[in-house]
Amino acid sequence: MVGNPRTALRSSGSPQGFPSAVFGFAFALPPAAAFLALLALAPRVLDEGALVRSIPWIPSLGLAFSIRLDGLSALFALLVSGIGALIMIYAGSYAKRDPGAWRLFLYLQIFFVSMIGLVVAGNLFLLFIFWEGTSVASYLLIGYAAKNEKARSAAFKSLLVTGGGGIALLAAFLLIESATGSADLAEILASGNRLRESSLYIPILILAALAAFTKSAQFPFHIWLPDGMTAPTPASAYLHSATMVKAGIYLLARLNPVLGLTESWFWVLTATGTLTMLFGAYLGLSQRDLKRLLAYSTISQLGVLTMLIGQDTAIAFKAVVIAVLAHSLYKSALFMTAGIVDHETGTRDLDRLGGLRRAMPGTAAAAVLGGLSMAGLPPMFGFLAKETLISTATHPTLPPFINLILAGTIVAAGALILAQAGVLVLGTFAGPRREGLEARDPPAPMLVAALVPAAASLLFALVPLPGIASLLAAAAGAAFGSPVKVSLALWSGVGIPLALSVVAVSLGLVLLRFESRVRNAQKQLEVGRIIDRLYDGLLAGVDALSRRAVRLQHGRLRLYLSVMFLAVVILFVLFGRPVPPRLAPASVPLDLWAALRVFALAIVVASSAATIVLRRDLHAILALGASGLNVAVLFLLEPAPDVALAMIVVDILTVVILVLALTKLPAAIRARADALDFRESKRQKILDAILASGVGAAAALVAWTALATRPRPSEVSQFYAERSKALAGARDIVGAIVIDFRGFDTLIEIAVFSLAGIGAFSLLCRGALKRDARAADRGSRSPLLRSFAFVILPLCMVLAAVFVMYGHDRPGDGFVGGVIVALAVVFWYAVFGAERSRRTLRWVRPLPLAVSGLALALVQASISYFVNGSFYTPVDFGRRLGLPLPDGFALSTSFLMEVAIFLAVLGGASLVIDSTGHPDDSESCESSGEGR
Amino acid sequence: MNIDHGVLLPVLIPIASAVLGLLFLRGRHRALGLFSLLAILLSLASGGRLLANLARGADPAVLPIGGWPVPASIVYVADFLSATMTVLGQLVFALAIVYSLGCRDRCARDSAYYPLLLTLSAGLAGTFLSGDLFHLFVMIELVVISGAVLTARSDDPAGPEAAYKYFYMSTLAGILLLLASGCLYAAHGTLNMADLARRISAHPECPLGAAGMVFLLSAFLIKGAVVPFHFWQPDFHSAAPTAVSAALSSVVVKIGVYGFLRMTTLLFVPHAEILRSSLIVFGAAGLLYGGFAAAGTRHAKRMLAYSTLAQVGSILIAIGWGTIPAIAAAIVLIVNHALIKASLLMLAGAVASRSPEKSASFESIGGLGRSARAAGVLYFAGALALVGIPPTNGFIGKLVLFRGGVELGRFGTVALLAGAGIVTMIYMLRSFARVWWEGPQGGIEPKPRGDRLAAPAVLIVLCLALGLWAEPLLDLALRGSVYLSEPAAYIAAVLGGGS
Fold first, then answer.
1. Chain B partners of A59 at a C-beta cutoff of 8 Å?
2. Which terminus of chain B has fewer CB atoms gathered within 10 Å of its CB, N or C?
């Protein structure tokens, strides 16, 4: 019962059932129609050789939707559609009581379309598309009973193997295309020796063989097929015996005219095929599950076909086409009877079956016919197949020792297969009836579906229809590359083949007689799962590697950054030409300014080092501030007063915010953080130091080079210097660049600033550690500070107004103004406490301020589009309107931009201040984020 | 010079709408969402117009902002590459907004949520459209801050930490970009990319030029989540809101890829060889590491994030090959991967939204698919696309990529790509089976309703459509690739005729 999808289906089935019989007939229509259409076309195919139709599809890929129907395609297409129609009808009864059976029909239909497409495709890539379609359909069908763990892993295995083969096929096709210059099958087949003589021949051969071997379950890629028997039996009958597994055979036969007829082809195919044939036949005998037994015999048969194609003789191809037809008929019949037995008795375990011939006479008849054909006994079509097969082994074109090996293996495999057929049929239907085994013949559609191919196995052998012979001949001819004669006479006279056949049959009968003993002996050997273990081992290897890979993502930012820095340094050393240029003899006078610079620089270095060394958080923050201020001093000495000013205010704001943030931390956490030493070992510290020096050296080298190769003329700088007043109305180059020439940068940057405020705000809301800091809200009681606060805020506002108004012309701008006012607000928060500051300074509404700043920036940028027809060009309203304005102040879009920057910066900064400065977060987040 | 103010619209429309939304629609998340959707669709249309003009054979649209003479001003350029990337970005963002409208996350009801998505999309469009290196840096800052804030506000408790890490590592990228701009400005006296390209070809051995190249390369390696610069990526995706992680892993990560294309086909043409070979090495590393890490992780979103490392790796390899068909393949892969990965992440998020813990770890969502069949169908299609199985766009991408390699005779690399494909198959099939085939874990009761599937459904339909009707995309990619092979075209479009 384990591995039986029916149990899963039954448990979930509703008693009303599902109109699956109707579905079955409905879904049988497309394959039936295709079958009839193919029959109607067959005479034309036989006459004309190949029918070709082509519709352009994706020309850039050389992919046309082209159909090519020749003998080989027609044979396979007829099998696919004919058996398909029967399977759909069969599935209709099989899936009764399964409410989800629409999936089964859908998947079967997808498969049918893909498989037909595969065999009639006239373009390599089209063929590939359908090839993958069959793999996917097979995956879905094998995993149909998904609640069953075995079904899931079998489905995974099947798609992994066949999908991997699919990739090989794609590669093979690409190589074929590059060697022949075409993906069109007709052109490739007409390319003669082009492929065989190509330098890519061996890769093509290996890749194509890989694809075919995985799909057609050749050793050692056969492992997915026995496991795949978890699929519903209709699917096993259809995909995994009659049609899909022959896709690989089809591929090899298809390409044989251009890839075959070489030594390598012969060896690769014959060796693999022979091995597979023996292996499948041998393991089949040890199986007790009906479907697995059939699966192994299928593998064996597929091996036979591969071996035959490898031989590349006319008679071999005759044997191929006969075997394809014979196998499809008897194996689908046998699978369907196995399904019936399973369906009716609830088991397909040979140990629990037996004596069903009376209870299920119809089923038994189908099974006997199928079994006889499988065993290769007269008067079945399977006999014909086996006779032809044996005659290839004695073919005079092969070297004698190979003949010997082939004959031996074929006889051995034939005997094993015969024994299996016997075990299968006799074990189920003969002998005494097992206890508790209730069964009767299934509903008519199911039985008929199984009987049709079984009967055909007999009929085709007894009544040699001329159409069949000529179709087979056409198929064999298309695969061989030149005409092949096929006669379907059962009796071909007495000779070595007949003798070998007799040997095989007698051996088989002996095996059958001692079947249980043989099986016991096989158990001792345990070869069956070697390849499965290999597969498991490979997957385990992948998993082990994967776990290792995942472990690299350990979540520690310090190490992430270290790796990144290290990689940058390595790249820099490799490609960055890190050769320091020689510095021109120093022309820098050693005066007071130089001394000041050196002093400031020393402080920067020292205070940076101090941030690392100092333990107390507050001290480290102050050191950071010192470092920043001295950088500002360096800028001031440059002289770059604009930058220095911005640097100073930003530095102060940073320190203030950091200190405010500290007040939010509970004392315990701060104490713990202060006490924390880096837990890394000394070695780690040394490595960090080396890395830091590397990064520092790279940066220093860049700075050195920049200095040493200075000055270099830049058109752009020159342009800014010369034209800022004339074009932008600004005496201050920095102002002109920030507001005008590259004002759009500024616009985006203030957006970034505001969003950063929003971000800090929400992070603080989320990470809020509550209640601890409530005490801080009292503020200061010093009257001096309080009166000072009342003075400083208006003063800062005036200063900011000046900066905003004249920023365009002088150092200082809206940004500095915004930060200064924000600092004054912080001062209020510190002095009066958050609650009172909020109540008094009602105009500090962070989010609206920030957003309206942005809005104003956008508006001023767009105004000029309507005034000048160009986005973001300066417009001086004051001059246009002739307003009397103080010197140096212009009522222009530039002024509006300064105001916008001021608002956005003030807003963004106060978002942070408000959330860090306020002791109790949960309410403030709700109220000020949304409302204020 | 084909001056067209429309180049600005994909940037201005979302930013202006974000501002309007924050000013007037605070607290009304439904209205805000619909308004944002309208905005992004308008923006998408404006990007589509640019692309359509180019497809009709127009010159690249150029806009020097403020009307200043070219190297001195910021220039916006919509050429084949930037217009395609912009349209792709806006499309994914439109669907991210659609997803957000139907999602059950609390963070999507935040007043800042949709505006931040809009600024993120604006930043992305600006990154692609900017013809100025420093402006590109500024736009990337906008992307980073928006993405970080969105993640910080995520429902996931790990959001702030992920945002913090993302912000930190992105800041490193920002510093490197700034360093690169500085070096290149010091070496060549310009920040305009066309002008830089012209000057670099004239003086390829300028001091600091190589350093600038290395820093720029490193910055884009971080942005593109290329191994070993990828660390921000997986942590980010498990914590970010679904719509955000879908957008980031699909289009925002392509900033790096875009950068590599610009570096090899425009800025550093004299050094393209060395860049290309290093890209192949990085690509191979990503392919291996990303694939195995994806197979090893126990979290659906992280798995998809790792898989992005591998997919970006294959794009890098295509760029590294550098031939016209290979670059065309890279463009096709860029588009396909964006659509596939966005849909898969949204589907993972949709399933996670049904788990009680709202987590996408397989422990939480294993077996939950039984209550979300439609998501399963979509996910399966997406998985096929990611693996490259027809009839999906992923197959088309794989085909052109492999063909590009075969034409060059790079069989070893193609074999590596094929092996990576098998690894992809392993983890995608496993994840599908875990969520949709296995029974639910003991005791986990899925929530009756989860996020809506409209957005991923549209994406999957696009994936299938681009698989069955691939010609337009292939044609576009090929024309784009031919155009990229001639850097003079870009330079002439920006600097005017006889450069």
1. 471
2. C
- The size of the A-B interface in CB pairs under 8 A is 308
Is any Cβ of chain B less than 8 angstroms from the Cβ of A873? yes
Say if the Cβ atoms of B422 and A577 lie within 8 Å.
Answer: no
Amino acid, single-letter form, for residue A378: P
Which candidate in A63, A169, A553, A927 is best for mutational testing of the B interface (most B CBs within 10 A)? A553
Q: Which residues of B touch A168 (CB under 8 A)?
A: 418
Q: Which residue of B has its CA nearest to A859?
A: B16
Contact criterion met (CB below 8 Å) for B346 and B246: yes
How far apart, in whole angstroms, are the C-alpha atoms of residue A727 and residue A741? 9
The residues, any chain, with a CB within 8 Å of residue B204's CB and separated by 6 or more, are: B270, B271
Q: Which domain holds residue B143?
A: 2-495
Which chain B residues have a beta carbon less than 8 Å from that of A741?
66, 68, 72-73
Relative orientation angle of helices A557-575 and A682-708, to the nearest 10 degrees:
40
DSSP state at residue A581? P
The pLDDT tens digits along chain B (499 residues) read 788 999 999 999 999 999 999 999 988 889 999 999 999 999 999 999 999 999 999 999 999 998 888 888 899 999 999 999 999 999 999 999 999 999 888 888 888 899 999 999 999 999 999 999 999 999 999 999 999 999 988 888 888 889 889 999 999 999 999 999 999 998 888 999 999 999 999 988 888 889 999 999 999 999 999 999 999 998 888 889 999 999 999 999 999 999 999 999 999 999 999 999 999 999 999 999 999 999 999 999 999 999 999 999 999 999 999 999 999 999 999 999 999 999 999 999 999 998 888 888 898 888 888 888 899 999 999 999 999 999 999 999 999 999 999 999 999 999 999 999 999 999 999 999 999 998 877 667 788 888 899 999 999 999 999 999 999 999 999 999 999 999 999 999 999 864 4
Pick the closest to residue A343 from A353, A328, A329 (CA basis).
A353
DSSP string for A609-669: HHHHH--SHHHHHHHHHHHHHHHHHHHHHTT-HHHHHHHHHHHHHHHHHHHHHHHHS-HHH
Dist. CA A335–CA B268, nearest whole Å: 65
Cβ(A183)–Cβ(A170) below 8 Å: no
Interchain proximity A581–B391, CB inside 8 Å = no
A594 interface with B at CB cutoff 8 Å = no
Residues of B in contact with A159 (CB under 8 A): 425, 429
Does A48 contact chain B (CB < 8 Å)? no
CB contact under 8 A, A699 and B179: yes
Look-up of token digits 């059932």: A17
Closest alpha carbon within chain A to B391: A129
Coil, strand or helix: which one is A67? strand
Q: Quote the number of domains for chain B.
A: 1
How far A252 CA lies from chain B's nearest CA (Å)? 22
Q: What is the pTM of this model?
A: 0.93
Nearest 10 degrees: CA dihedral of B388, B390, B396, B400?
70
Q: Where are the domains of chain A?
A: 21-259, 263-527, 731-932
Chain A residue numbers with beta carbons less than 8 Å from the beta carbon of B135 are 742, 744-745, 748
The tokens for A602 are 């020393």
